[in-house]
């Protein structure tokens, strides 16, 4: 074995230092084969003695080759073998510092990944020189503010690997420092990818630390949540979500403190960018601690949450705030029974009014409308009297009529309200079913007959499906009778409109003529729009001719 090692180093001395000449042809293949043989000897030889000089020579080659794309793989393999065999030399520290920087600054993803692997071996596998990881952890925490996203991502992944691989006692030592630095990046980082990875790293940190240290970290986050600054509360909320994800229902023991502090942040006067993460975080905590939250619904702190949620549901400045508030209440509803409202401080009718207000907004997204309708389906169960149900049905029918008259090109309101009709009809009988049918069958009949100019097929299909639900509940005969009444009423309205127009033509011919001119002008405009849509090249040609005319105009 010693003679083999001597011969290998003689060959390395002759060929590995040839520079550019050694990077071509047979010489390159020879040197790479020699290095691979050395790697195998270091990893697998039962007894191996390398002099300090020879070890430093190998480390010198590693340091030189780690940036060479042709030699990188062998260089990393050699360094891993040296660290894995726990061969000690001061030169190793210099190489590690170089790789630590490359793990963040290198533009090549595979180089960053290899550097991280070496760093993890150096710090986590009991290598004699890597027993104190503090300087490495501090380095990667500092790189969380690195200017390029790839570098920050690499630093986060390295920290995540530290949390996963280091001993619990070691992670406990640096946990508070890591939490503070990581939490700041959850709020301040511009990259959504980095924010997501930081959140995962915080979760990993909570998973690894001891129960005693986890309690200490919770107190730090709770202090942030009690801060007078909304930005600090937003940061704390996102940290506590990760703790709730780790502890699950066990987090319920912390709810009394957490909910009290959360309620102070549920105010639409705050900046939406801070309020939305807080509300979303509370929603996730409720999901993780559904049973614990349900037990506290009648507590004073929840009375405050019910009251403050109203201002969020009606936040006119931000649809995101309204959506987040609706999702929060939807998650709370998921764990409670509608009978809760019988003696509660909050009235189901008031909450219905808030969600109807959301649906009535001129600018309404599909996601917001769907969440509002889901909540209304649950709250409808709490409207015990037929009068309250009729009030809600009339409010929602007005929402649909508003869209028909003022937003004929939109269909979000009708599509979602019709889904509410189907859901409520399936769960009710008798007079309650009659209330819903009377309020909405005329609207459904209108869409069944394809009266809408836009979204006709989608509305028609949904209206037919909802009509089938009503038919199955009412019976075919009753349903057909009510549908015929709707047809008769619709025909009567058309006849009345025609009669009024005819009377106006006689009584005020000038106004009738103007109306006819406007109608004709609208037809011409619509025809031009259709031609432009079917033949876009005509539009470009006209624009080109107009530009040419301007060029030759006489001033």
From TrEMBL:
Region described as Disordered: spans on this chain: 507-555
Domain U3 small nucleolar RNA-associated protein 20 C-terminal: 232-532
Domain of life of the source: Eukaryota
InterPro entries documented for this protein: ARM-like, ARM-type_fold, SSU_processome_comp_20, UTP20_C
Pfam families documented for this protein: UTP20_C
GO annotations of cellular component type: 90S preribosome; small-subunit processome
PANTHER family linked: SMALL SUBUNIT PROCESSOME COMPONENT 20 HOMOLOG
Identification of the protein by name: U3 small nucleolar RNA-associated protein 20 C-terminal domain-containing protein
Organism: Plectus sambesii
